[in-house]
Amino acid sequence: MPYNVRLRYANLDLYVNSQYDEVGNRTEITSSLGAHITMERDLLGQVSRMQAQRDGGSDASTANSTPWAAQMTYNAPGQEIERLLPGDVVSEWHYDDAGRPEQHSVKTGGRESRKRRYEWNVNYRLKSMVNELTGHKTQYNYDDFGNLIGETNPFDKIFRMADDVGNLYSSGHKKDRTYSPGGRLLEFEGTSYSYDEEGNLVEKIEPDGTHWRYKYYGNGMMSKVVRPDGKEVMFTYDPLGRRIEKVFQDRLASQLQLRCAAGHRRARRTDRANPVASFFVLVHIPFILPSRREHLA
After folding, report:
1. Confidence of residue 118 (pLDDT cuts 50, 70, 90)
2. What is the rounded CA–CA span in Å between residue 74 and residue 70?
3. β-sheet bridge partners, residue 184
4. Strand partners, 73
5. Is the per-residue pLDDT at 74 higher than 90?
6. What are phi and psi of 12, to 5 degrees?
7. What percent of the chain stands above pLDDT 90?
8. H helices within 105-230, ranges in order?
9. Rounded to 10 degrees, what is the CA torsion of 172, 175, 179, 183?
10. Helix/strand/coil percentages in the chain, nearest 5
11. Which residues form the Teneurin-like YD-shell domain (predicted)?
12. Confidence (pLDDT) at 257
């Protein structure tokens, strides 16, 4: 059964509403500012067409404007091979026999504006990328364990080295960063990091003395961030572990409201000490619908 998920910004009186189909694929997005995005999907659930427009209301010029639209085409394994965009823009991908990207080109009005060729080694690691319009080539290097350690292009060289346990460094001397025996980063470029007994980051001190502090619930999910100015950002989650509330300066910065299928009940709770910070949770859930977590930060 299709269902909706609404992200509500209470202090601004704004919302973003998402519509999902029976298998959890998002098919429509609307917002209180007038955004209206629809997505058509193929049998594999991949987006084959996307259309975006603004609901103009009384604004006739906006309401009658041509919607932005894009069309996507895929090959048999499900890889995108073509994307048609407004302005006569065409993006094309070509793959080798192993399914790895081999060439990507973008044409505008029939004229190539981007053309990249990719080369791979036998271990499916990217060996080089060539800009076929300029001739510039970027090469990538790996260690014996397959970790990317370097990038070389005509203008710069970037180096990254891992030690025997996987800790990363930006120099071959492996002294530019400090790690704990458990692999936790303790110091880098003058910034120090502290952790609790469970490995959660609890404090970050920058070179100028700026402090960031982090608090967690017993299950390890972040409950609070204390900024350098002493102001707090607090987070709340529903029983399924999904973040539903973010509060800053006693004001509700964002809120996630779930609209459930029949058979579910929705409860609304309000903090009496802070009437602004109201939120929704799910109770008595006989089964869990397919859903996608929304990042509220």
Report:
1. very high
2. 13
3. none
4. 82
5. yes
6. -105, -5
7. 58
8. none
9. 10
10. 0, 55, 45
11. 88-268
12. 55
- pTM (global) more than 0.85: no
Joined together, the tokens standing for residue 140 give 């990538």
3-state secondary structure of 57: coil
Question: How many whole angstroms separate alpha carbon 135 and alpha carbon 282?
Answer: 57
Measured in whole angstroms, how far is the alpha carbon of residue 187 from the centre of its chain?
Answer: 27
> Six-digit token pair at 183?
């692999």
C-alpha to C-alpha distance for 204 and 212, rounded to whole angstroms: 5
Q: Which long-range contacts (CB under 8 A, 24 or more apart) does 143-146 make?
A: none
CA dihedral 239, 240, 242, 245 (to 10 degrees): -10
What confidence category does residue 249 fall into, taking pLDDT thresholds of 50, 70 and 90?
A: confident
Please name which of 18, 16, 1 lies closest in space to residue 292, comparing C-alpha atoms. Answer: 18
- Yes or no: say if 116 and 106 are a contact pair by the CB < 8 Å rule: no
> d(Cα 145, Cα 147) in Å, to the nearest integer?
6
User: Residue type for 67, please?
Assistant: P
Using alpha carbons, select from 246, 242, 263 the residue that is nearest to residue 255.
246
Average pLDDT, the chain: 83
Give the H/E segment covering residue 243.
Answer: strand 243-248
Q: Distance between CA 199 and CA 76 in Å, rounded?
A: 44
pLDDT at 253: 62
Residues whose CB falls within 8 Å of the CB of residue 259, separated by 6 or more in sequence, listed in order:
3, 4, 5, 6, 266
Q: DSSP states of 150-183 as a string?
A: EEE-SS-EEE-EE-TT--EESSTT--SEEE-TTS
Count the neighbouring beta carbons within 10 Å of the beta carbon of residue 245.
23
In this prediction, residue 64 carries a pLDDT of: 55
Whole-Å CA distances, 111 to 29, 96, 114, 203: 33, 24, 9, 52
